[in-house]
Design goal:
- GO terms for molecular function: glycerone kinase activity.
- By secondary structure, this protein is mainly α.
- The chain has one domain: Serine Threonine Protein Phosphatase 5, Tetratricopeptide repeat.
- The chain has nine helices and two strands; from the N terminus they run βαααααβαααα.
- A two-stranded antiparallel sheet has the order 1-2.
- Helix 4 runs antiparallel to helix 5.
- The longest helix is centred in the middle third of the chain and has 19 residues.
- The structure holds adenosine-5'-diphosphate and magnesium ion (MG).
């Protein structure tokens, strides 16, 4: 069965850095009505630093790759999203220690550990208009696709994240800066759910 090699995972994160650079304005515009207009800048800066680290010293296994991403995001991204994505990648890395590739089951385990850590750190549950609303459906989709080929499962996870992202529009924010707006947060797509979808879409479409 196909697996996620260290090379594939490295390529994913390098391409994600380009995606986030291109999406910088869009993500920052989403963060304007319900935030402080910095999500695009935060993500682009964090992943540009990730790209520099990975190019300078390509990690030898997926565990050290994910750990490098985590430490870099934590140290370079101001704002809520840095520690939250950092926690995701750090907890995910603990399930990939020493592994040079991940099966679908192993990636699902990493993803679950990452999401559990992120939710604990942010004290967030699904339905609160955060990145969790894209990531939690993606995890469910990965689990539901356990018997399917890897690429199909990754595509299902990206599709679930897209749905979860759009489904944040009618929600009232309960966590983060957007929650300060109360009912006025309704009617806007969450920026963090949008960056989460971008990341998962790129993992599913390495060449796209
Ligand atoms: P900040 O809110 O500090 O300016 P960003 O703009 O980079 O940070 O990120 C905002 C995004 O972070 C939100 O759109 C939301 O998805 C996510 N977020 C904020 N607080 C939380 C939380 N407690 N739990 C999960 N996600 C959160
Ligand atoms: Mg912000």
């Amino acid at each position: 069965m196909a697996a996620l090699s260290t090379d594939r995972m490295t390529t994913w994160l390098l391409q994600a850095a380009d995606d986030l650079e291109q999406a910088k304005t869009m993500l920052t515009e989403l963060d304007t009505p319900i935030g402080d207009s910095d999500h695009g800048v935060n993500m682009a800066r964090g992943f540009a630093a990730v790209r520099d680290k990975l190019r300078a010293a390509p990690p030898a296994d997926v565990g050290s790759l994910l750990k490098t991403v985590a430490m870099t995001l934590i140290s370079t991204v101001g704002g809520a999203s840095g520690p939250l994505y950092g926690t995701f990648f750090l907890q995910a890395s603990t399930k990939a220690t020493g592994k040079t590739s991940l099966t679908l089951a192993e990636w699902t385990e990493c993803f679950e550990a990452g999401l559990t850590g992120l939710m604990a750190r942010g004290k967030a549950q699904p339905g609160e208009k955060t990145m969790v609303d894209a990531l939690a459906p993606a995890l469910e989709a990965l689990k539901a696709a356990a018997a399917q080929p890897l690429e199909q499962a990754l595509a299902a996870a990206a599709a679930a994240a897209a749905q979860g992202m759009v489904a944040t529009i009618p929600l009232q924010a309960r966590k983060g800066r957007a929650s300060y707006l109360g009912e006025r947060s309704i009617g806007h797509q969450d920026p963090g759910a949008t960056s989460s979808h971008l990341l998962l879409r790129r993992l599913a479409e390495p060449a796209g």
